[in-house]
Amino acid sequence: MLLADSSFANSVESNTQNQTGASNQNLPNEFMVLPFLILLFMIATGPLFYKHFWEKSFPKISVLLGSVTALYYIVVMKDLYSLHHTITEYISFIALLSSLYVASGGILIKIDKESTPIANVLFLLFGAIISNVIGTTGASMLLIRPFIKMNGERIRPYHIIFFIFIVGNIGGALTPIGDPPLFLGYLSGVPFFWVIANVWYIWVPTLIMVLILFFIIDSFKNSKIVKNNQTYTGKIEFKGIRNVGYLGAIVIAVFMDPNIFSFVPSMYPLPFGFRELIMFAVAFLSYKNANEKILKANEFNFTPIREVAYLFVGIFLTMIPALQLIAVFAKQNNEYFNVGLFFWASGSLSSFLDNAPTYLNFLSASMGKYDLHLNNKADVQDFVLIGSDYLRAISVGAVFFGAMTYIGNGPNFMIKSIAESSGIEMPSFMIYLFKYSIPVLLPIFTIIWILFFY
Amino acid sequence: MKKIEHTLKNNLDGLYFGNRIILPFHAHFLKVILENEIITDFSNSSEGVQVVEDDDFTSLYFLEIKSLKEKLSKFSSIKMVVCEKDKNIFDFSNHTKLVCYVKEKHKLVIEQLDQDITFIE
User: Fold this and answer.
1) What is the dihedral of CA A200, A327, A409, A10, to 10 degrees?
2) Confidence of residue B46 (pLDDT cuts 50, 70, 90)
3) Which residues pair with B99 in a beta bridge?
4) Angstrom distance (rounded) from CA A255 to CA A416
5) A436 band by pLDDT with thresholds 50, 70 and 90
6) Nearest-CA residue of chain B relative to A422?
């Protein structure tokens, strides 16, 4: 998921116990996982079997199911802390997502180049690299329209899906800016450059395998297309340079955290921090000052972000019990967990849950093997030295597996929505899972597991 | 029969009321996109878009929404792939991509697709 954890922004130390799960005495009832499962089930089946009801009602359903969990925590659990923490996470998530969406909506990139498989591979590779600088969300929002335009009438759903795999997820595994779990690790004490130094040699073969597969599919499909005689200048046009500044401001805002810079005021107990205020302000300024022609060309509207906001309010709230139960289970059973199991467990849960707290839960559980604690930065730094295999497995699992479903990572849904508004019929949740992510990604992740975590 | 070509050449506007748009031409409709909703069902079902032709204009009813004005934001548009009634629908070169913007006072501005806008047929 995106940089979702501003509760960490506010107080890493005090939050950790709840981040990593409730104590055994204060665990939610197992049945409280039901709202999350119902929501997940409806996300999967709604667009297939009751499309119109779902499209009309998903905001209400999401809020309703989220409210059931919220009420349970208020009335039965009397645990306002978990609720406050989740709302803080959610606001942070939406702040980053919406600000990057608005700022990139004021940028127009036109590529007058023939869409060939190799051009697409280079484009996706560029997206993967840049996602480590402006985050997977920023890179996705910036590049999805040029990618569609470059491919023109040749574009098919698989182009968009590989874009989700590479730019929206796997690409951002090299820096803490790339994907939120890694940023949370950074806030907890993992050195900034630890990720790139320890993950690059996994990132490179994974990316190569996904890109080769894309190249083969794209070449095969391309060979069937009758070429027109259109000429291309090869020119790349870039409009909206001011918004690049806004994007830069958002990236800088990511670090406006009291745990990083002591001069940044903590706004606790408010469910947002200084960082979120900057992000919303940048989004507002960026929209107000944007070139109207660019907004019109990008058909800028708030529908994709509104959809994500509604859907994820339900996801964030309903997954609180699931995360807490998983955290306790992982802690109680950490002696049975080897590196490979941490990779699969953090990965498979990140496919359906918020990968930021999932990362923290498993990080905490793996540190428990050495009697180290996540709420102690010195312990985290010790763990980086003695438990780097575990940290690597959890980092890679949490980021890579975000590509497995539409809800695995924030940008996934937005990329889908932009593609649909451009006229591309995207596959449903289940088709995405069974036709694309399982056949393509699962074998690659298995190879990665055998090579690095077995 | 009112033609698309005539509409574009003379910058004619359409109208919209509630979930209905009124286009000053007759055409074969192939695809309509409303935000991220891709509509290809123009049969007389209770879903998608219902097309009703009059002597001088064509009405499109978006059956699943109440108000286009509420649905569409400032830079959003209704995009469509259409074909002149007297032309061969099977020839792709006869397909025209239009973009419609809802403006104040029920005015619907109809434009040929701007090359900057991403729209895949």
Assistant:
1) -90
2) low
3) B79, B111
4) 29
5) very high
6) B119
The DSSP output letter for A452 is I
The residue ranges of every structural domain in chain A are: 7-24+33-453
Asked casually if ipTM beats, i.e. exceeds, 0.90, the reply is: no
Q: Does B119 touch chain A (CB under 8 A)?
A: yes
Token output for A283: 């989004």
CA R_g for chain A: 21
Note the pLDDT tens digit of each residue in A71-92: 999 999 888 988 998 898 889 8
Q: Which two tokens stand for residue B61?
A: 């009813």
Has residue A4 got a pLDDT over 50? no
B residues 72..91 contacting A (CB < 8 A): 72-77, 79
Helix (H) / strand (E) containing B62: strand B58-62
Are the Cβ atoms of A152 and B120 closer than 8 angstroms? yes
CB-CB neighbors (< 8 A) of A286 in chain B: none
CA–CA distance, A110 with A402 (Å, rounded to integer): 29
Count CB neighbours of A275 within 10 A. Answer: 26
List the beta bridge partners of residue A5. none
Chain B nearest C-alpha distance from A364 (Å)? 41
Residue-range domain boundaries for chain B: 4-112
Tell me if chain A has a CB within 8 Å of the CB of B35.
Answer: yes
Q: Could you tell me the pTM of the whole model?
A: 0.82
Q: Does B114 touch chain A (CB under 8 A)?
A: yes
CB of B120 within 8 Å of any CB in chain A? yes
A54 pLDDT higher than 70? yes
The three-state secondary structure class of B20 is strand
Q: What is the DSSP letter of A284?
A: H
Cβ contact, residue pair B64, A153, below 8 Å: no
Write out pLDDT tens, residues A117-141.
Answer: 999 999 999 999 999 988 898 899 8
Residue A447 pLDDT: 96
pLDDT tens for A36-48 read 899 888 887 887 7
- Residue from B34, B36, B109 to probe the interface with A (highest A Cβ count within 10 Å): B36
Alpha carbon distance A54, A311 (integer Å): 11
Whether residues A296 and B75 touch (CB distance < 8 A) is answered with yes
Residues of B in contact with A158 (CB under 8 A): none
| Residue in chain B lying closest to A53 (CA) | B64
Decide if B33 and A52 are in contact by the 8 Å CB cutoff.
no
Give A233's DSSP letter.
-
Looking at every residue in chain A, the average pLDDT score rounds to 85
